[in-house]
Amino acid sequence: MVLLSKKDLKISLEVFSVFQWALSVLVIVITVIAVNLYLVVFTPYWPITVLILTWLAFDWKTPERGGRRFTCVRKWCLWKQYCDYFPLKLLKTHDLSPSLNYIVACHPHGIMSHSWFGHFATEMSGFSKTFPGITPYILTVGAFFWVPFLREYVMSVGACSVSQSSMDFLLTRRGTGNMLMVVVGGLAECKYGLPGSTTLFLKSRTGFIRMALRHGVAVIPAYSFGETELYNQYIFTPGGFINRFQKWLQNMVHIYPCAFYGRGLTETSPGLLPYAQPVTTIVGKPLPLPKIENPSNKTVAKYHAIYVDALRQLFDQYKTKFGFSEAQELVVT
Predict the structure, then answer these.
(1) What is the pLDDT of residues 110-150, one digit of tens each?
(2) What's the rounded mean pLDDT across residues 45-53?
(3) Does some domain include residue 89?
(4) What pTM was computed for the model?
């Protein structure tokens, strides 16, 4: 019988914590569909599926009404192993007042946004100590809330829909001290999730600025140094069949199907787990915006440009501390 040392056991737990989160969506979706198909087609227990669908219909709007978080899930000891795997580090440049609400624009998306999840969907990187009195809401695409049980898991860590109605609710019906986390580049930015990349999909992403203007809340730039180092990608021949398919799908559904890869269950084996590279997230200075209920496109563009300048300043201030040269610039597309 081989006994693991404390160090080996910790490494194993860290790998498992990342593995379970990265694959949980796929496993839960397949399990829910397979079990309910079995109940309906092969057993007399189809009323269970009817009850599940009835509850889903009844509870459909919850992700747009603040979700249903459970602090005990956000404090799972498993998330401590998750944050230690990379490891993740959260730094702030300014204190935030619990008497105000904020929209935090997160960059870059990377492949799976591991740093944003670890910092703001769990308590294990020290969020509550770093920002006392502030409640984070990590906003994500509505598809995560379409599948029973998966939606409960996602909501339990404080996630909500990124829809306009969801943001309106959080900024007007949940009091103050709320921090809405928006990974602005979204899935369209995955194509730039390459080691050494500083390219962001941001020029056309103005919705978060419009929302901040409508409610008169400050926007905060945040940048995760190291997020794009967690995976590599296969780059296909420009103009080739696979490359043309990637661009076609991106134009159709705004999702870039990148062929990414990382490490396996062991450090030297290939797989789909992220590389164990340190990621440091810098939360910048709040950028106050005026309250304009129906801002024009020109007004939104004006404040979007001001925001991009603030983001560039944040990146330039810290880039040399995290491996980038003084000449490296933030590329906004």
Answers:
(1) 999 999 999 999 999 999 999 999 999 999 988 889 999 99
(2) 95
(3) yes
(4) 0.92
Bridge-based pairing state of the strands 199-200 and 135-140: unpaired
* Residues shown for the chain: 333
In a domain, 171, yes or no: yes
**Bridge partners, residue 331, by sequence:** 199
The C-alpha angle with vertex 175 and arms to 170 and 177, in degrees rounded to 5, equals 85
Mean of the pLDDT values across residues 244-264?
82
Helix (H, G, I), strand (E, B) or coil at 17: helix
- Residue closest to 294 by CA, chosen among 216, 179, 180: 216
- Residue 241 within any structural domain of the chain: no
Asked if the structure places residue 92 within a domain, the reply is yes
- Number of domains, the chain: 1
Q: Which range of residues forms the domain containing residue 316? A: 6-231+274-322
Distance in angstroms (rounded) separating the CA atoms of residues 307 and 292: 17
- For 88, counting Cβ atoms within 10 Å of its Cβ (0-12 exposed, 13-18 middle, 19+ buried), the class is buried
What CA–CA distance (Å, rounded) separates 301 from 18?
39
Give SS3 for 282. Answer: strand
